[in-house]
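Just wondering, can you check both lines?
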Amino acid sequence: MTAQDLMVRLGDRSYTIKFGRRTIAGIGRFCLDIGVGKQVAVVSNPTVWKHWGDGVDRALAAEGFIVHRIMIPDGESYKNSETLNHIYDVLIETGMDRQSFLLALGGGVVGDITGYAASTYLRGIPFVQVPTSLLAQVDSSVGGKTGINHRLGKNLIGTFYQPRLVLIDSAALDTLPEREYLSGLAEVVKYGVVCDGSFFDFLSQGVEKLLSRDGDYVLHTVRRCCELKASVVERDEREGSYRAVLNYGHTFAHALEKITGYSRYLHGEAVAIGMVQAARLSETKGYAGHEDTRRIVDLLGSLRLPTELEGFAPDEYRAVMLRDKKVRDGGINFVFNRGIGNSVIERVADWDYLLQYVV
């Protein structure tokens, strides 16, 4: 099972996304091809490492790489400065230099924090993404957003720093727990809502194949998401304007995650809830019709994702949202869907309007 490689075209920061099955076994050769140094620190967590770590270790060592392991705890609550400093400690203690590179083996948390460490250690060393969760494969591993959370908000500290290679192995999804797999489907649906109506139709018609993790169908789905993400990133690498459409549903999602201490919802679950709020608000703006909202809610529900916002007080949501990095002069750049397959970004300063469905 293969899919054609994809190039993210960003001038001298361009890189390849490689797709396939059991391609992790070739990671050593692929790293040789991009011309990185011989020392590599593999950042992962124990959950992922028990499935894929030894294979990555062997594949790198077989090509002459000197491999250092950095294990970090599993979970969003550990995407913080304490974990980041642990990574720096190992890099310094093992003598990693500017020709060395980092390899992120894991989901979005591992990828985000590894990328940030790579972008800041010695003012920047190369890194490679090997995403093992669906959410990371379709979204966070592509586009160069890196960062950590602050106690006052999510992803408030970070950089734009592109990887040298992204290797997507569909076999990694076989070992993914059901809840995490379903969580990743929320980001998949997002692309259909804001970028490609025909892709939304494709997903709606293939719910059973998605739920059963049909290999060819899922690989095609992942590649199409990466293709859409790459086209957005190529147009607006540093989120000056257009790239913000990929934040659809994330304003409410990040607030919900923060309010619940990053412990009640997986990121994709929160995004699903946030998308429903965004769809309802898009309907009140006249950007979308009731039928569009119904289709979005129905697809998310059929993929076993939550759709109802947790009933915290509006002031709690407002306090967290005001710390969102998209806030400007008391208003927030909010992403609305135009029907299904298109979107618009509009500054919203009326917080009562924005929170009208919070009860």
